[in-house]
Structure formats: structure tokens, C-alpha cells
């Protein structure tokens, strides 16, 4: 299974594209998080370059909690050679204790506090409507990569991983949807024309699936991105964000820059919509499809690409799907 020294062939480049794509989307959206789409359009037009955000003490190319938490997953997977619930929770607590939160969400803050007090990661997640946020789906790409050859394993690992913070059926379904798309792209058999049908079938009936199907109708009707995102939503609600991110990817499946820039333009939870769209588009198009100015300018790009390569070596060549 394990093939070290594969080089930087297309499969490894897709793994790296996914994690780097997530970080790039997060960093591009960072300075406009919370702004409405109309305000972004008026003040800066299309967002195509990293920008400083002195009010949050972050510089151009720096990312937020989405990438912080993605890195927790990636480091734990690399250290353990697979998904380990307890080790993942320890990574989360180490990040929480660092206080370098960069926009931590409410459900994540509450569950991290519980974990830090010694509550089990099986019990730490927030329940109820307030736990239907983006905080699990935004960080889940490394688990999608890890389990790209074993979709039942993916379903199980993603559920456990998401529930550490978001013990909510829609948050879990949204995370499974994102991980599924990342997995199909990373192993090289994602079909843009059937992605939404396939994803909805994989996660089963739920609000995330319904909103994804709405996105499919908008795509079939040729709706412009701006209108589609206004209708699908770009709030912190996972049902909205996952559908908007899929729409941005599927509107321009071969164009990473356009996908991520458009996702940022949707505003509100702009960093997360772009992080999710970037993770999927990066996995589909590979590292080289990410513009060099973003690859070179994103915070900790070298470490992120290295972790992705290490996950690739754990998985082995993913073209051979069972
Ligand atoms: Mg964020």
C-alpha cells in the first residue's frame, strides 16, 4: 500500500492542491469575513489578491481558524498513520490553549472548553441547532484525503471527527459531503456533472442534500454565481456554505482562481466558503492549478504541502480504488 518516493506525480499534487487550496481560500477570504457581497463588490471588486487585515492583526496571506483546525487533523493523521479520535482531540486542545484562535466559532469554543476540562471527545461536541455551523466541514479535507479509497471508512471517521465539536446531523452531513467530494477528486474519479447527485446519495436525505440539489438546479439553469450565492446563502450555517462552495466549484470546475475568488465574493462567511471550495477545486485540479502568487504567499505553504504529501504516502497511490 505504502509507496514512499512516488515523486510529485499527479495524485500527490491533488492531495497537496486540496490542503493548500483550503488555506489559500481561507486566506483570500480572511480580510472580508463578515462583509456583505454588495459591500465587497463596491469596495474592492473581485478579490484576487491577499490583503492585510490590521483590525484582526493578520497580514496578507495569513489564514484563520479553518486552516488552524485543518492542520490539527493533518498533523494527527500524519503522526498516527490514520484517524485517531483521541489524538485529534489533543491537537485541538493544544491549538485552543495557544489562544491563537483567529475567529473561533461558538460551538468550537464551547466544545474545546469541555475537552480542556477533560470531557471525552465522544461527549465534547455541542448538540442542537446552534451546532449546525461550518466549524467541522471547513476543516475536514485531510480526513477526505486519508479515506479516499474507503468511503465507508470516510463516512465513519468524518462523523466521529465532526462530532468532537459539532454533534449535529447537518454538520456531520455537511462534513461528509465535503470529504466525499475531496476524496473523489483526490482519487481522480470526480465527475462534475454527477457530483451533486453522487454526494446527495452518499450523505442521504437531509437539509444539506436538499440545498445541494437546489445548487444543481441553479447550475443547470446557468445562474450567475452572485445570484446563486445570494439564494443558497453564505452564512455560518453549514447547509448554506456547503451548497455555495459546491456551486462555485461546479460553475468553473477547471479554474481554481475563478472558483475561489467567486466564493470570497459571496461574503459573510467568505473565508469558509472559499476554504471549502478551494479544498475541492485544489484536489480536482492539483497544486499547479493554484496561482503561483497564492501558493508562494500563503502562510506556512511549505508545511501544508509537506503534510499533504505525507498523507499521500500513508494512503498510497489512490488510483487503485476497490
Ligand atoms: Mg474562519
CATH-defined topology: ADP-ribosylglycohydrolase fold
Question: How many H/I helical runs?
Answer: 16
CATH level 1 name: Mainly Alpha
What fraction of the residues are assigned to beta strands by DSSP? Answer: under 5%
Helicity, as a percent range: 55-70%
Element order: H for helix, E for strand? HHHHHHHHHHHHHHHH
Give the distinct bound molecules: magnesium ion
Give the second-level CATH assignment, the architecture: Orthogonal Bundle
Q: Considering the protein shown, what is the CATH homologous superfamily? A: ADP-ribosylation/Crystallin J1
Structural class comes to mainly alpha
Task: Describe the overall structure.
With 322 residues, this protein is an all-alpha fold. It has one domain (10-47, 60-315): ADP-ribosylglycohydrolase fold (Orthogonal Bundle). Helices cover 62% and strands 0% of the residues. The protein has 16 helices and no strands. The protein has helices spanning 10-29, 37-44, 65-80, 85-98, 106-116, 141-146, 151-163, 169-187, 195-203, 207-220, 225-232, 238-251, 256-265, 270-285, 292-297, 301-315. It is globular. The model is unreliable at 1-7 (pLDDT under 50). It binds magnesium ion. Magnesium ion binds at residues 64-66, 103, 271-272.
Amino acid at each position: 500500500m505504502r509507496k514512499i518516493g512516488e515523486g510529485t506525480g499527479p495524485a500527490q499534487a491533488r492531495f497537496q492542491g486540496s490542503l493548500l487550496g483550503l488555506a489559500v481560500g481561507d486566506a483570500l477570504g480572511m480580510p472580508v469575513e463578515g462583509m456583505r457581497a454588495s459591500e465587497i463588490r463596491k469596495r474592492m471588486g473581485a478579490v484576487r489578491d491577499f490583503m492585510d487585515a490590521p483590525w484582526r492583526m493578520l497580514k496578507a496571506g495569513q489564514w484563520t481558524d479553518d486552516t488552524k483546525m485543518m492542520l490539527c487533523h493533518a498533523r494527527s493523521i500524519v503522526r498516527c498513520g490514520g484517524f485517531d479520535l483521541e489524538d485529534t482531540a489533543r491537537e485541538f486542545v493544544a491549538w485552543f490553549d495557544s489562544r491563537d484562535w483567529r475567529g473561533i466559532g461558538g460551538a468550537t469554543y464551547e466544545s474545546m472548553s469541555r475537552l480542556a476540562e477533560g470531557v471525552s471527545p465522544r461527549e465534547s461536541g455541542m448538540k442542537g441547532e446552534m451546532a449546525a455551523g461550518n466549524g467541522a466541514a471547513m476543516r475536514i479535507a485531510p480526513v477526505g484525503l486519508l479515506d479516499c479509497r474507503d468511503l465507508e471508512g470516510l463516512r465513519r471517521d468524518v462523523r466521529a471527527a465532526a462530532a468532537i465539536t459539532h454533534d449535529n446531523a447537518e454538520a456531520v452531513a455537511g462534513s461528509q459531503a465535503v470529504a466525499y467530494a475531496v476524496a473523489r477528486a483526490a482519487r481522480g474519479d470526480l465527475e462534475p456533472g454527477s457530483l451533486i447527485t453522487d454526494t446527495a446519495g452518499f450523505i442521504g436525505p437531509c437539509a444539506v442534500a436538499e440545498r445541494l440539489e437546489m445548487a444543481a438546479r441553479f447550475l443547470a439553469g446557468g445562474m450567475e454565481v452572485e445570484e446563486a450565492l445570494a439564494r443558497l446563502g453564505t452564512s455560518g450555517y453549514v447547509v448554506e456554505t456547503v451548497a455555495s462552495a459546491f456551486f462555485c466549484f461546479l460553475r468553473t470546475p477547471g479554474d481554481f482562481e475563478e472558483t475561489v475568488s467567486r466564493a470570497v465574493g459571496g461574503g459573510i462567511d467568505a473565508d469558509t466558503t472559499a476554504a471549502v471550495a478551494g479544498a475541492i477545486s485544489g484536489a480536482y485540479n492539483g497544486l499547479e492549478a493554484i496561482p503561483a502568487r497564492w501558493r508562494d504567499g500563503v502562510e506556512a505553504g511549505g508545511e501544508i504541502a509537506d503534510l499533504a504529501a505525507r498523507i499521500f504516502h500513508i494512503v498510497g497511490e489512490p488510483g487503485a480504488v476497490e
